[in-house]
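From the methods appendix. Each design record in this collection lists the tokenized structure first, followed by the designed amino acid sequence. Records were kept in a plain field format so they could be parsed without special tools. The example shown here is representative of the layout used throughout.

RECORD:
FOLD TOKENS (411 positions):
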């Protein structure tokens, strides 16, 4: 039987402990748990508690380290030490994985250890394993979805119960869905990390955090909500990555979704992923994206793979896609702002719709992804609403037939 060293005993760690004990998993058992506080009461017996992560990594009887802490920097230190020590490693820390993905995958290969992180993306939805395994030889045209339960909960309350943003956020915090500082969730950083991880498995590309544009839902206003409601649309925070003619581009933006879109019905803390494949066609995965037991379930799945020495295939790395030039990507976005100077900052290629009032301006039009990235810091500072319409173009390339069919289905 394999021995596990569990580092971190918060929401995820406790969920895993209870899951393994209640299911009677016989291939591995927790030998030690590293925690910070010596005074905090625990559901685990005191004799297996330790107060140093290094003690678990250095323990020759421990075969597998499972990391379940919030601190991305500390998690990376644990990951690196564990892999170099020749122990298999499982983590739920999406920021750490996304930031150091290339280094850690190379280090794991060098040291012949299994490195898995299913629980870092979309909770209980087996999306990493599905993309890596089922679609290993299948060309993927696009991935888009709802990857963040906190922002989706807030938007669900705004649209379904007509709550104000601040009230919905406070409710999410009270329920434990949102942190005291919710920036990672409502600012679109959390889904960006998850998109970066999926990009490797779906397209074989390593994307840096700065390569992926992210806007959140924290700049949305009543006028934006009314605009969507008048058109029978909802707003969802949607990370999207597309491949057109072998070129890949991705971003995280609030997006208008219609009733025809699977994401329209994904509510509260649930997640959903739309996959468009070249041969298999459209697929949709749905499930709980966060929480103690859903995340622990994904960790337990990783554990079983690790025990049986099954790592990820990374088949798409053999022939990776090309990352598109952002200057050649045009995205149609809706914007709302009060400062007239913002119109010049945006530098739309063309405007498709506009409304001017004494209080604000609404403009919808196409802007290059490069330009949007260049001025993102200004738009965020000025609290400019940016919402994707779901339409985009690749300049200088003929759009593939599959993408055209995809656009027609979503129209």
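DESIGN:
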């Amino acid at each position: 039987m394999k021995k596990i060293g569990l580092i971190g005993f918060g929401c995820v760690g406790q969920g895993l402990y209870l899951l393994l004990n209640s299911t009677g998993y016989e291939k591995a058992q927790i030998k030690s748990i590293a925690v910070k506080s010596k005074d905090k009461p625990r559901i685990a017996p005191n004799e297996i508690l330790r107060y140093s992560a290094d003690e678990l990594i250095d323990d020759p009887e421990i075969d597998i380290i499972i990391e379940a802490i919030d601190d991305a920097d500390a998690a990376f230190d644990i990951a690196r030490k564990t892999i170099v020590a020749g122990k298999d490693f499982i983590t739920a820390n999406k920021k750490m994985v996304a930031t150091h993905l290339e280094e850690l995958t190379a280090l794991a290969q060098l040291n012949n250890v299994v490195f898995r992180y299913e629980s870092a993306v979309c909770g209980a939805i087996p999306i990493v394993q599905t993309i890596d395994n089922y679609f290993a030889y299948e060309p993927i045209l696009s991935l888009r979805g709802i990857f963040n339960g906190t922002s989706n909960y807030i938007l669900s309350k705004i649209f379904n119960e007509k709550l104000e943003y601040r009230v919905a956020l406070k409710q999410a915090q009270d329920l434990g869905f949102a942190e005291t500082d919710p920036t990672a969730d409502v600012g679109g950083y959390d889904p960006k990390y998850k998109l970066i991880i999926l990009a490797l498995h779906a397209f074989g590309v390593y994307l840096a955090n700065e390569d992926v544009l992210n806007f959140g839902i924290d700049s949305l206003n009543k006028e934006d909500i009314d605009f969507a409601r008048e058109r029978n649309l909802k707003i969802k925070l949607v990370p999207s990555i597309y491949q057109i003619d072998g070129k890949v581009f991705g971003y995280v933006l609030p997006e208008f979704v219609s009733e025809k879109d699977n994401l329209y019905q994904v509510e509260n803390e649930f997640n959903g992923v739309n996959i468009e494949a070249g041969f298999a066609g459209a697929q949709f995965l749905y499930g709980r994206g966060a929480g103690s037991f859903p995340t622990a379930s994904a960790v337990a799945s990783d554990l079983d793979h690790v025990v049986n020495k099954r790592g990820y295939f990374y088949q798409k790395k053999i022939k990776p896609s090309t990352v598109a030039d952002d200057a050649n990507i045009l995205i149609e976005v809706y914007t709302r702002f009060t400062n007239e100077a913002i119109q010049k900052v945006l530098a739309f290629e063309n405007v498709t719709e506009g409304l001017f009032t004494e209080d604000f301006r609404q403009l919808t039009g196409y802007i290059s992804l490069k330009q949007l990235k260049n001025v993102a810091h200004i738009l965020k500072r000025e609290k400019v609403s940016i919402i994707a319409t779901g339409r985009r173009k690749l300049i200088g390339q003929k759009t593939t037939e599959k993408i055209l069919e995809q656009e027609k289905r979503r129209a």
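APPENDIX NOTE: The radius of gyration is 22 Å.
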